[in-house]
């Protein structure tokens, strides 16, 4: 498991260096636990992962109200003074979150995130948990 996480960290670094305005990248499980991160403070990454669990749930509830939608969240983008936040579905039970500054090319970040998910989406999964333990 440690080797897979190291490989995932390297791939996240590749996304960050490809878009220099990215401050932090977090891969999280649907229940809000950090799987991997690049950049930023680990405590911030943990808080971001927890917040993303609620956000993806809210986004899925909104998506369910859209006619002809399958009800699944694909991407959320939030623009605030100072930057952007992106959250993208990245595999079964896993999500990719990115914090970037306000000078970032918003379209480029979304495209690079999609490319990353396509390339390694099978590795960005988090099996469901039972009694606090991941099931295999």
TrEMBL record:
**Limits of the Roadblock/LAMTOR2 domain:** 9-100
Q: Which domain of life is it from?
A: Bacteria
The record's listing under InterPro entries reads:
Mycobact_SerProt_Inhib_Rv3364c, Roadblock/LAMTOR2_dom
Q: Which SUPFAM superfamilies match?
A: Roadblock/LC7 domain
Per UniProt, what is one Pfam family of this protein? Robl_LC7
| Signal peptide coordinates | none
Name of the featured protein: Putative regulator of Ras-like GTPase activity (Roadblock/LC7/MglB family)
Species in which this protein is naturally found = Streptomyces candidus
């Amino acid at each position: 498991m440690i080797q897979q996480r190291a490989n995932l960290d390297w791939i996240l670094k590749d996304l960050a260096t490809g878009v220099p305005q990215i401050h932090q990248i977090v891969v999280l499980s649907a229940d809000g636990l950090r799987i991997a991160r690049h950049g930023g403070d680990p405590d911030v990454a943990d808080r971001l992962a927890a917040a993303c669990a609620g956000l993806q749930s809210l986004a899925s509830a909104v998506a369910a109200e859209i006619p002809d939608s399958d009800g699944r969240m694909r991407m959320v983008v939030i623009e605030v003074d100072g930057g952007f936040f992106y959250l993208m579905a990245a595999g079964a039970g896993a999500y990719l979150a990115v914090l970037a500054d306000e000078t970032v090319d918003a379209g480029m970040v979304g495209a690079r995130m999609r490319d990353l998910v396509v390339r390694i989406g099978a590795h960005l999964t988090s099996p469901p948990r039972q009694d606090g333990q991941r099931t295999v």
